[in-house]
């Protein structure tokens, strides 16, 4: 992974993937407190800008420890945070990490999540040396499941009632994408 003092900025045709900073707390709060955004994400909804600031601080701490990295998604011609995407649940010994993302509903259906996903996947394979990238989704999240399939991810598993959230047992789909590079040897 990267040294903790370096943050990679990724650019696509329409997007800037950048470090998430304290000033992004209000925008992150708007997204993480929106039921439409959080419907398929089994995490508590954010209840304040201060709580969003704590999330940003925890993302920075994870990155500083080289345990993951999360980018803020912004339109290339603006700096305003419209989403997040990153790697967590890093399994360094297996050269595998899980990708997760969210996007403000005003930007759904425009291909922006796929554009961000492609950039982060390429960075994961070419720069971070990942061999595989996984994503875990709610089977009911048809938009996210279709996005992953369109961008080269293959559904590996459907776990039935594998986690407990908000008083219910929920299913999970596990998706993965492998690098095109030859397998590492001699490790």
Short structural summary:
With 187 residues, this protein is α+β, with helices and mostly antiparallel strands. The chain has helices spanning 25-32, 35-38, 49-64, 112-126, 142-150; strands at 10-11, 15-18, 69-75, 81-91, 96-103, 132-137, 154-165, 168-178.
Write a concise keyword list for the protein shown above.
eight-stranded mixed sheet; 187 residues; single chain; globular; 8 strands; Aminopeptidase; alpha+beta; 28% helix
Structure commentary:
25% of the residues are buried. The model has no long low-confidence stretch (mean pLDDT 93). This protein has a single domain, classed as Aminopeptidase (3-Layer(aba) Sandwich), CATH 3.40.630. The chain contains five helices and eight strands, in the order ββαααβββαβαββ. Helices cover 28% and strands 33% of the residues. Helix 1 crosses helix 3. It has 187 residues and is an alpha+beta fold.
The tally of strands reads 8
CATH overall fold name: Aminopeptidase
Average pLDDT over all residues: 93
Radius of gyration: 16 Å
Largest sheet: 8 strands, mixed
First-last Cα distance:
17 Å
CATH architecture field: 3-Layer(aba) Sandwich
**Spans where pLDDT lies below 50 across 5 or more residues:** none
How many H/I helices?
A: 5
Assigned CATH class = Alpha Beta
Order of strands across the biggest sheet?
Answer: 1-2-3-4-5-6-8-7
Order of helices and strands: EEHHHEEEHEHEE
User: How many structural domains in the coordinates?
Assistant: 1
* Outline type: globular
Helix residue percentage: 25-40%
Main structural class: alpha+beta
Q: What is the beta-strand fraction? A: 25-35%
In CATH, what is the homologous superfamily?
Answer: Gcn5-related N-acetyltransferase (GNAT)
């Amino acid at each position: 992974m990267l040294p903790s003092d370096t943050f990679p900025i990724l650019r696509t045709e329409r997007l800037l993937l950048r470090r998430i900073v304290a000033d992004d707390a209000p925008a992150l709060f708007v997204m993480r407190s929106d039921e439409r955004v959080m419907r398929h994400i089994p995490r508590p909804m954010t209840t304040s800008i201060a709580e969003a600031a704590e999330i940003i601080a925890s993302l920075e701490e994870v990155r500083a420890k080289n345990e993951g990295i999360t980018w803020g998604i912004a339109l290339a011609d603006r700096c305003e945070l419209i989403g997040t995407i990153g790697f967590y649940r890093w399994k360094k010994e297996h050269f595998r990490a899980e990708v997760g993302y969210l996007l403000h509903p005003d930007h759904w259906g425009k291909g922006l999540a796929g554009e961000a996903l492609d950039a982060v996947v390429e960075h994961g394979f070419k720069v971070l040396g990942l061999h595989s990238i996984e994503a875990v989704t709610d089977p009911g999240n048809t938009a996210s499941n279709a996005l992953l399939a369109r961008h080269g991810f293959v559904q590996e598993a459907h776990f039935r009632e594998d986690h407990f959230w908000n008083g219910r047992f929920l299913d999970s789909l596990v998706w993965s994408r492998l690098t095109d590079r030859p397998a590492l040897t001699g490790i």
